[in-house]
Amino acid sequence: MQRKPGLFHISVIVSALGFFVDVYDLLLFSIIRRPSLAALGLDDAGILRKGELIISTQMLGLVLGGIIWGILGDKKGRLKVLFGSILLYSLANIANGFVQTIPQYVLLRFIAGIGLAGELGAGITLVNELLPKEKRGVASAMIASFGILGAVTAFFMNTLFDWRVCFFIGGGMGLVLLILRISLSESGLYKQIKSTDASRGNFLMFFTKKELFTRYFKCILIGIPAWYVIGVLVTFSDQFGKMLGIQGIDPARAVVFQYCGIALGDMTVGLISQLLKSRKQALLIFYGVTTVFCTLYFLQSGGSASTFYAICFGLGFGTGFSVVYITWSAELFGTNLRASAAISIPNMVRGALPLILLLFQFLRSLTGNYITGAWITGAILMTLAVIAAINTKETFGRDLNFIEE
């Protein structure tokens, strides 16, 4: 009898390393934004304006890449996406270390964004299809929790090296990872469906079939609170600190504390999901944790910087639910659309950040209060996410050998 793959199967290890490099590269610009743009001759106003342009362009690349890699993952195979995505963003990051102008910077972050979009979803899709159903959740949690440490590494690399070297390091790590990926094998489920005439990677099916669209849209809503925390509360933590009477808050440090929390949360939510035998229950528990720390965040008026960073860690722990909704997304859709869903959904969530910021801007203008606008934004998004999660089918232990007609 053939031995079933375990939690330390090569696909899990290499996917975890791949996501580590992915997160390193994804957050590197946020961490080195100021020194890199200052080195290109921008003043404070230019750094803010061009920084917003570059990060928005990178997010646009993620959305586009999520669609492209998702389709390719179903049409050409999970492994081709893992190879292609990491090669693209590795080369883009190496080139990024040589930029001399802002247009070059913008273009390369867009290309890197396209490449970065494929890593996590493709890795989790491959692992879910290779491993026994009773191990899928924990394996996905291992991938995500180790990968998140890439953010911490990016922060410390910034303290040790020039910003250009930081880009070279990220690209170099990706190219080394390509060598490890040679040992991976394609998913058996994908090999089976490849020999049939089933329609694979038809992204338009998500929008032409009502039931598929509803399922897909609910998965996006489920992930939105994570990027509200990342993109609003933590990214603009220095601004919130001033509003709350807390001086000296460093956004880069807040990001590190949050991502350390996410690494712990990813592993914990996977174990809880396994213990409860439910994706939905584990997710709702972590929604509760996120809500508690969001409340503490807004109530810390006049507190200390150390307490602020501790709350950022707690926010990260709560938003560790991301691994559950991505695994859930992979399990909700048939083999012929699984990569399209698992790769594009988290990138649609990331790409929703500009819409979240627009809602926040509208509500703070409407209420005339920065803090009030922020917590109302969070309350709306969390309510929508809870409703979507409650009305989404449980998939724990589901047989993934099915297709979407």
Word description of this protein:
With 405 residues, the chain is mostly helical. It has a single domain, classed as MFS general substrate transporter like domains (Growth Hormone, Chain: A), CATH 1.20.1250. The chain has 18 helices and no strands. The radius of gyration is 20 Å and the shape is globular. 52% of the residues are buried. The mean pLDDT is 86.
Layout: helices, strands, pairs:
Layout: H1 10-39, H2 44-75, H3 78-96, H4 102-116, H5 119-130, H6 136-160, H7 163-181, H8 188-194, H9 205-208, H10 210-234, H11 237-243, H12 251-276, H13 279-298, H14 305-318, H15 322-332, H16 338-351, H17 353-367, H18 370-390
Helix pairs in contact: 1-2, 1-4, 1-5, 1-6, 1-7, 2-3, 2-4, 2-16, 3-4, 3-5, 3-7, 5-6, 5-15, 5-16, 6-12, 10-15, 10-16, 10-17, 10-18, 12-13, 12-14, 13-14, 13-18, 15-16, 17-18
Q: How helix-rich are the residues, as a percent range?
A: over 70%
CATH class: Mainly Alpha
What separation lies between the terminal Cα atoms?
33 Å
SSE order, one letter for each helix or strand: HHHHHHHHHHHHHHHHHH
Q: Name the CATH homologous superfamily.
A: MFS general substrate transporter like domains
Q: Which parts are unreliable, with pLDDT below 50 for 5 consecutive residues or more?
A: none
Question: Would you tell me which CATH topology applies?
Answer: Growth Hormone, Chain: A
The secondary structure category is: mainly alpha
* Mean pLDDT figure: 86
